[in-house]
Amino acid sequence: MAIGKSNPPKSGLSKSSAVIVPREPLIQNVIRHRYLYLLALPGIAFFIMFRIIPSLGSVIAWQDFNIFAGIFKSEWVGWKNFRDMVAYYNFGRILRNSLLIGLYKVLFTFPPPLILALLLNEVRRLTFKRTVQTLVYMPHFLSWVIVSQIFISILSPQGGVVNILLERFFGIEPIFFMGKEAYFRPIVVISSIWKESGFESIIYLASLAAISSELYEAAAIDGASRWQQLWRVTLPSLLSTIIILFLLRIGRFLEIGFDQIFTLANPLVWPVADIFDTYVYRKGLLQGAYSVTTAVNLFKTVVGFVLLLGGNAMAKRLTGRSLF
Fold first, then answer.
1. For the segment 74-87, what is each residue's pLDDT rounded down to a tens digit?
2. pTM of the model
3. CA neighbours within 13 Å on the CB side: how many for 37?
4. Cβ atoms within 10 Å of 234's Cβ, excluding its own
5. Are strands 75-76 and 63-64 parallel, antiparallel or unpaired?
6. Non-local CB neighbours of 77 within 8 Å, separated by 6+ positions
7. Lesser CB count within 10 Å: N end or C end of the chain?
């Protein structure tokens, strides 16, 4: 008895007869999901008021803006403000400091939240885990004024904890850390790690909780140790989250933070501390040169956008995953 190939039953719907569901009108969608839109309303209002509307004022970068004349009556000067920005006698120093501090922050402050999340994920005692989480989250809610004063106090040559330990155990004379250029950038990086690592680890902890336990069980059956499970299961499962957060960090490469630098810096370390944000403060708020400082912020935005596009393309080529 010959057995021939059986043809699969046809669904009865061809490509040409596929049903196309019309899109729901926006008004009806809003009415049907009114409570969801109501919940999203504060976020939408914040985005419009503090992101979209202020960005429209960026046109003053091409004007000789006069606060009394307003945007519509101020004189247009083309690219003059950008030329003035580059021609500023300390522009090279500001650019170098901003790039170096931004690079150090990306390289040294990005891994600690991931490492902290991986370590907390291995803790099995919930009481100890929650206590540690609370302690490492707390610095995020402190202002940079407080954090900077804490670091200035512990690094002080007169009664600072660090200098006391160095003198007691190593016989080193007190060092004025906050007054030496060589120490300023490391202090900026270390203070950023201490303040933000705990809070930033929340995203990684959420991603770790979403990893299926069956993957670890299968790896354990195959004889994988905890270290091998980390490299073969945990990190590959976190790859998308790592890439997205890294790309977002690159996009904010020059967004170093005025409050941190301004509260940590002093005249002795100003040659290595002066960045675009402090320049904007001096030129824009103290001298009223709003057009030039707007040009500076646009320059920072363009640099961040270009870095984001480049990092996204590289991540897509190397890992096949990207932000967009």
1. 999 999 999 999 99
2. 0.83
3. 9
4. 20
5. antiparallel
6. 62, 63, 64, 291
7. N
SS3 63: strand
CA atoms within a 13 Å half-sphere pointing along the CA-CB vector of 126: 0
Distances (CA, A) of 231 to 120, 200, 222, 227: 16, 21, 14, 7
Q: Is residue 134 within 8 Å of residue 201, measured between CB atoms?
A: no
Joined tokens for residue 135: 């302690």
What H or E segment, with its residue span, contains residue 64?
Answer: strand 63-64
Per residue in 89-114, pLDDT (tens digit) is 899 999 999 999 999 999 999 999 99
How many other C-beta atoms lie within 10 A of the C-beta of residue 178?
20
Q: What angle do CA 45, 47, 52 make, to 5 degrees?
A: 110
Q: How far is CA 3 from CA 6, 117, 189, in A?
A: 9, 59, 74
Q: Is the pLDDT of residue 118 over 70?
A: yes
Write 251-255 long-range contacts (CB < 8 A, 24+): 251/304, 251/305, 251/307, 251/308, 251/311, 252/304, 253/102, 253/103, 253/106, 253/303, 253/304, 253/307, 254/98, 254/99, 254/102, 254/300, 254/303, 254/304, 255/300, 255/304
* Range list of H helices, the chain: 26-32, 34-47, 53-56, 80-87, 91-109, 111-121, 126-137, 144-154, 161-170, 181-209, 213-221, 226-229, 235-251, 258-264, 270-273, 276-280, 290-319
Mind listing the domains of the chain with CATH numbers?
62-319 (1.10.3720.10)
pLDDT at 93 (0 to 100): 94
From the list 257, 274, 256, the residue with the least C-alpha distance to 265 is 274
